[in-house]
Amino acid sequence: MGRSMKIAVAGQNYHIKGGSDKVLMDEQNLLRSYGHEVAPFCGSDPKNEDTRWEEFFPRRDVSLSSPRLQDVCRYVYNNDAKKAVRRFISAFRPDIFHCHIYYGKLSASILGEIKDSGIPLVQTIHEYKTVCPTYQLISNEQVCEKCSGFAYYNVLFNRCNRNSVLRSAVSMVESYASYFLGSISKIDRFIAVSNFQRQKVVEMGVPKDKVVTIYNFIDADSCSPTYETGRYFLYFGRIEKTKGIWSLIRAFEKLKTITLLVVGTGNEYSAVTSYCELQQITNVKFFGFANRAQLNDLIKGAVATIVPSVWYETFGLSAAESLAHGKPVIAADIGGLPEVLSPGEDSILFEPGNVDQLSLAVVDLAMNKQRAVDMGMAGRRNVKAKFNKAKHYEELVAVYQSLT
Q1: Residue 33: CB partners within 8 Å, gap ≥ 6?
Q2: Burial of 229 by CB count in 10 Å (0-12 exposed, 13-18 middle, 19+ buried)?
Q3: What's residue 239's pLDDT?
Q4: Cα–Cα distance for residue pair 279/252, rounded to 1 Å
Q5: Average pLDDT, the chain
Q6: How far apart are CA 183 and CA 134, in angstroms?
């Protein structure tokens, strides 16, 4: 489709640590498969995949796990990243610069260099950083939109970052610094991954004409579907409060004869495992971290997967992946999740945090396993039609071409 382009992609990592990294890597490979030249500009990390462009990655980036004073300063403004991106642009000379999560390790210091070089700038927004300093529109475990209109000072007033004045102050300062460095004004086009996300960031201040929706794509052909009755229900993802882990645990605390397998790690892992041990909840099993091959096998053995989020999910990759494997989904009716799913056909939705509704949905599929199989078949058909690679590529390149 159209001429071959030189596309720079920016992100925190050049390896898969989270969902945004996977999107960056998958999208990069997709563009290359259509004949485009793609070069990464990412934070340095020993886990990064090999690339000849690594020499241009900033050497002095930000440690986000145990930040020191210099890390906090670079988090707000990374001068090394600014110099590095200047060298990268000079060497690669991209036609377009596509950012994913560039803040954190790289910072908004890179934006001015890119725009001064006359390069159109696109950003895929994987969360709500443009309108929320803590990215998730959550404050003190409740959905929050107080920073609407870029009123970032509310993050400090409400201690939104781990209930810490210091962390919240850093979040506020970084957000204002990014805003004045062009985190909104210098981006030519934002790509939202769901219509819900697009509508939300527009409602909260991002110019409407700058935001388009392009759904993430799922390579369903790489997933071997299993249309068999499963043995357990499955949760896979980060073990966090915002992911609804506690309502999930409490639902299965009531469903003593139905097994839940929890796959993943996170900040709430110790708390939920301790709770299950203390309460002798023996039907909830914890697997811990699983690699891709292990996860694929675990999905195959499930009746259905559960996505119990209580935050505004931007898309719901785990839900789409489940459908690609031929497994139905029980999901919270929140954020972009209803757009990924076809409720009643391949999924059951429940009110976020409603333990009784979640329990009823689990019992429904546990008692009607053939219905679960039929829903899984429908889900695979739906995900192949809605989120295939060719459709994603055409929409993405159309955005690029509109700016070049």
Answers
A1: none
A2: exposed
A3: 96
A4: 12
A5: 94
A6: 15
Please list, in sequence order, all residues whose beta carbon lies within 8 angstroms of the beta carbon of residue 390, skipping any fewer than 6 positions away: none
Strands (E) across 308-396 are located at 329-332, 347-350
| Cβ pair 99, 86 in contact under 8 A | no
Q: Hey, what amino acid is at 130?
A: T
The residues, any chain, with a CB within 8 Å of residue 387's CB and separated by 6 or more, are 215, 216, 217, 218, 220, 320, 340
Q: How far is the C-alpha of 219 from the C-alpha of 226, rounded, in Å? A: 16
Q: Where are the alpha helices (DSSP H) in 48-138?
A: 69-76, 79-92, 109-116
Task: Look at the block and give the residue holding tokens 């009823």.
Answer: 360
* Pairing of β 142-143 and β 138-139: antiparallel
Beta carbons within 10 angstroms of residue 247's beta carbon: 24
Query: What pLDDT does 174 receive?
Result: 95
Is the confidence at residue 61, as pLDDT, over 70? Answer: no
For residues 140 and 337, give the distance between their C-alpha atoms in angstroms, rounded to a whole number.
23
Q: Identify the structural domains of the chain with CATH numbers, from first to last.
A: 6-130+183-217+388-403 (3.40.50.2000), 220-386 (3.40.50.2000)
Taking residues 92-116, report their average pLDDT: 96
The percent of residues in the chain predicted with pLDDT above 90, rounded, is 89
Distance between CA atoms of 18 and 342, rounded to whole angstroms? 25
Structure tokens, 342: 């076809």
pLDDT in tens, 166-203: 999 999 999 999 999 999 999 999 999 999 999 999 99
Q: How many CB atoms lie within 10 A of CB 70?
A: 11
Is a pLDDT exceeding 90 seen at residue 204? yes
Strand 96-99 relative to strand 121-125: parallel, antiparallel, unpaired? parallel
* CB-CB neighbours of 64 under 10 Å: 12
Longest dimension (CA), the chain: 62
Question: Tokens 């896979």 — which residue?
Answer: 236
Paired with 261 in beta bridges are 234, 285
Q: What is the pLDDT of residues 136-160, one digit of tens each?
A: 999 988 899 999 999 999 999 999 9
- Going across the sheet that includes 329-332, the strands are 284-288, 260-263, 232-236, 302-307, 329-332, 347-350
User: How crowded is residue 281: how many other Cβ atoms within 10 Å of its Cβ?
Assistant: 19
Half-sphere exposure of 169 (CA within 13 A, CB side): 5
* Cα–Cα distance measured from residue 375 to residue 325, given in angstroms and rounded to the nearest whole number: 12
Give the residue-averaged pLDDT of 226-246: 94
